[in-house]
Structures are given as C-alpha cells and as structure tokens.
Specification:
- The chain is an alpha+beta fold.
- The longest helix is centred in the first third of the chain and has 108 residues.
- It is rod-shaped, with a radius of gyration of 59 Å.
- It starts with 20 loop residues before the first helix and ends with a strand.
C-alpha cells in the first residue's frame, strides 16, 4: 500500500521570470504610441468639431448680417419712401397753394380791372352830361320839338301822353311797341330817361336810339321787371342780342323807376343804369338816327311810363 501524498501548505513559492529591459522599453513605447494615437484622434475630432462649429458660426453670422443688411436696406428704403412721400405731398401742397394764390391774384386783378373799367365809364358818362342838353323833355305832353308818336293802334297798345306822362303799351305776346321822336337825329350822343314799368309780367321797357329813316332798324336798350337787362339790334322784325345780363342795381318789380343811360361814341356803345356801368359793345351797324322808347310784352300786356328824356351831343374830351 502506497503512502498517501499529503499537501504541503503553504505551497512552495513559484519561480518568477524577470523581464528583460528591451522588452520593457518596447512595451512602454507601444503604450505611449497608443496614447498618442488616442490623443491625435481626440485632437482631430476636436479640430473638426471646432472647424465645423466656427464655420457654422460664420455662416450664421453671415446670414444674420445679410438679414440685418436686408432689414436695414428695407428700413432705409421705407424711410426714403416715406421721405419721398412727404416731399411729394409738400410739393403738391406748395403747388396747390401757388395755383390757388395765382387764381386768387387773377380773380382779384379781374375785379380790380372791372371796377376800374366801370368807374372810368361812369365818369365818362358824367363828363359827357355836364353841359346843356340838346333835348330836355319832361314828357308831360307833346308840346316840345321832338314830335313823339302819339295814338293807340288798338286797345292797350300804342304810344300816348296820359296823366302828365308818356306811356308805351303792348298787349300782344312777344311783340315790341316802339315809340319814336320823329323830329330828332343824333349820331354821337349821351341819352337818358326815367323808365317805370307799371304792369306786365316779365315785361321789358327801355330806350331806342339811332333809329333809321324807315323806323325799322335801331338799337334798343331795355330792362325787365325781373331785374334783367339787354342791348338789342333790330332790323325789321328780327332782333339780335348784343349784351345781356342781370344786375342788383336795377330796381325790379312794378312802379319802381330806373334811370337808363346810353353813351354812343361812334362804334362803341356803353350802357348804364341808375349811374352804374353795365357794359359796352363795339358795333358799326348803325351810325346815327332818331331816338325813341319802347316796350316788349313777354307774358301779359305791358305798360311803362317815360319821363325826363335828355340827350347830349357827345364830343370826346
């Protein structure tokens, strides 16, 4: 029987092999190389990451700069547009103000010119009537030398002295009744008379002058009961309006007297009423003739009275 082997405790130490120096150096170098490779990889990763980040930052900054530039450009354009709008608006305001100022100046000058013209003609008429009148007839009867038409052709139509004054009447609608002083003949004249429309809706009454030999052609300056006036040229049955209008200086209505005035200087005819200038016209159709008065029936039979007829031979001073 074999003897049993008992374990020995503690076990005997094992022999250890000592590493050689070259082997240790090789291992150290390998470790260092691995560390360097890791560091290089980490550096490369950091470099790439940093490069991409900086690029992203640059791109973001560029975009933001471009956007900022765009915003600034847009804002500047809006500011410039707003400034241009206000400049245009200001220019338009100034242009409008200038135009309105020019219109106002033209209107003011027109009023001044019209006033000057009226004053000059009113003074001219006043100067032309300073001397003794060639014809001075109160028209109370037909005893003076003018020889006015007298007699009724029909009821409410004709020329008559009645009640201490001279009447001209017309009862036919749209007809004119002339009443002529047949013993008169004047070329350049200042002629006036007191005219009162007694009745006749829209009736007209006024002065005839430069009546031709056939008593068919003449000028007729007349006013209406509605405040209108006109200067007509008649030749036979036809009449042509040379001037017309309305004026506040006319005493409208019935039984209100108006003093009508005519200044005929060669081809220039000036009309006035109650001392106020109404207008003038140049016409050479008639150069001289008789004087007269007349009425027009424009609605209902018209009747008017005429008094204080005066005529001066006009001589330009």
């Amino acid at each position: 029987m074999m003897d049993s082997v008992r374990p020995i405790w503690p076990p005997p130490p094992r022999s250890r092999k000592r590493r050689s120096l070259p082997g240790m150096i090789s291992s150290l170098l390998a470790a260092i190389l691995c560390i360097l490779l890791v560091i290089s990889a980490l550096g490369l990763l950091v470099f790439e990451t940093t490069t991409h980040y900086r690029g992203a930052l640059r791109r973001t900054a560029t975009v933001e700069a471009q956007q900022t530039s765009s915003v600034q450009t847009t804002a500047q354009a809006r500011v410039q547009g707003t400034a241009q709008y206000f400049q245009n608006a200001q220019a338009q305001i100034e242009a409008t103000a200038t135009a309105e100022g020019n219109l106002a100046a033209v209107a003011t000058q027109g009023v001044m010119d019209a006033t000057a013209t009226a004053t000059a003609n009113e003074n001219r008429y006043q100067n032309s009537t300073d001397g003794k009148a060639t014809i001075d007839d109160p028209m109370t009867d037909n005893s003076r030398s003018s020889k006015w038409d007298s007699g009724n052709g029909s009821t409410d139509t004709g020329c008559t002295f009645s009640g201490g004054t001279y009447h001209a009447s017309e009862a036919q609608f749209m007809y004119l009744q002339p009443c002529i002083a047949r013993a008169t003949n004047v070329a350049q004249l200042a002629y006036q008379a007191d005219v009162t429309i007694v009745k006749g809706n829209l009736g007209q009454a006024g002065l005839l002058f430069r009546v031709d030999g056939a008593n068919s052609a003449y000028y007729f300056f007349h006013v209406g009961s509605n405040g209108t006036y006109a200067l007509d040229l008649y030749n036979g049955a036809s009449g042509n309006v040379l001037l017309q209008g309305s004026s506040a200086v006319i005493n409208s209505g019935f039984n209100n007297m108006n003093q009508l005035m005519v200044l005929a200087d060669k081809d220039t005819i000036t009309i006035l009423i109650n001392g106020h200038y109404l207008g003038e016209i140049t016409d050479n159709s008639l150069g001289s003739g008789k004087i007269g008065v007349g009425v027009i029936d424009n609605g209902t039979p018209v009747d008017a009275t005429f008094a204080n007829v005066k005529v001066w031979k006009y001589e330009q001073k």
